Amino acid sequence: MPIPAPAPARSLLLGVPKQGRRWPGVVRAGVAACLPALAGVALGHSAVAATATLGAFAVVYGEGRAYRVRWRVVSIAAAVMVLLAGVGAAVGAFVHDATAAGGSALWGMALVLAMTVVVAVCAFVVDGLRLGAPGAFLPLLTVEISSALPALGVTVAEVTSWAAAGAVSALLVSMSGLLARPRTPERAAVATAVAAVDAALSGTPAPNARRDAVRSLHAAWQCLHDAALVGRDHPLTRTLRAAHLRCAAVVDGGDADHASDEDDLRPQVPLPRPSIRYRLARAAHLRGRSWTIVARLLVACPAAGLLALGLGVARPDWAVITAAMILHQGPDRVLGTYRGLHRFFGTVLGLALLAALATLDLSAAALVLVVALLMAGTEAFLVRNYGLAMVFITPLALVLGGLGTHVDLVAVTRDRLLETVLGVAVALLVLWTVLPGSYRRILRDADDQVAGTIGRLGDAREPDAVAELCRDLEFDLHASTTAAITAAHTDPAWTRDRWPEHHHLHELGYRILTRHFGPRL
């Protein structure tokens, strides 16, 4: 029986998926960072105004979401960014004061531990809620950048205030199209899904075209659920339904034994997400994937930071964030290894870009525009190719952390390369040696959750309870598929032996959903 295999290495390393129209989100990211910072410069606050970018990071979390829920998502993300900017600045000030007073360089471990706690908590929440990229990356980057600012004389209050200004800008820019074109996010999601289905059903589809089509369809349906359009006779719903049926006719009519993430597309409308409480309760299972991610982060981040300090690096934060960003997106060893390669080569190219920027004598306003362009470049590639995103993230972090001050470029390049090598090496070592059999436990746990939800659904009688359990079951089936793919990538022989049991449970779950859920599209 065939099982899922990773995409070709060339595709994973060099591929840049289209994912619909990206330029509006890219522009929003740049504008959200630029507006408050330029206003600050105009009012005489110099380069410190660029720290508004820390709060503006929140704009990224609203992309792809209907305006009906976008304001809430961006508001929560903005509050988190402002809080963490303050935390990072406070810890950075403490470490700076302690070392300036002649204290040991090991005081830097306070920053390492703070970053470890932040990324562990954020990664757990992001993975539990299945929020996807950028996940815990931008919160951790906020802590890392803000921790460097007190050494330049920027106070904690200033960092927090400018981050708050950026947060307000993120919310306003994110919602700027509401009055003029209130259905733009839904139209964009449906157009992306239709284009992905067309590409998947073309004569010469790309290797991952069908997988991308299924994911785009699910994302579009969730966007329509968020907009309260599902169940209404709306043109967007009709268009998406037609594309869904075209794709499902191929996927659902294919080889029933070939299971992949395409299996989660059936000729029914996907249900809305379960409650936040349910998703976090599922993540709290110690045998699940979220705790595996957290456990590896708790080992790798302090180890990378301690090694960096031991080798005499002045600031260990880049080693910590390197290790964290390889591990925080999931336990898949194959994909994690590719993320490590992306991190290293992207950092090298990013340092080259920083060297080019260092030759320029930038005014405060020019510095703000450079930061805005780097922010836009990060948004353009962060979800599509992590290596290319790192080309922009590296100078963004270093320019913001230094506020445009002249630095010893040779020393910065040496330290960042050393920390990157340390972070990548520690992360890959942890990925392959800490909890090496976790993929088996995660798949068993995911299948057990499916079986348990099926049992509760069989006992339910109240219509509201049945509807809620159906949402829970579909969520559990998606989680089971993800766990199975990770296991197949990691240990094909073991997964092949377990596959018939997993596949039978999967089919049973969807048959039950079909029975309770009603007729096909």
Automatic annotation (TrEMBL):
Q: How does it sit in the membrane?
A: Multi-pass membrane protein
Task: Name the Pfam families on file.
Answer: FUSC_2 (PF13515)
Q: Where in the cell is it found?
A: Membrane
Record domain Integral membrane bound transporter: where: 304-430
- NAD among keywords: no
- Which keywords fit this entry according to its UniProt record? Membrane, Transmembrane, Transmembrane helix
Asked whether the UniProt record includes Membrane among its keywords, one would answer: yes
**Name the record gives this protein:** FUSC family protein
Source organism per UniProt: Rhodococcus jostii
Q: What is the lineage of its organism?
A: Bacteria, Bacillati, Actinomycetota, Actinomycetes, Mycobacteriales
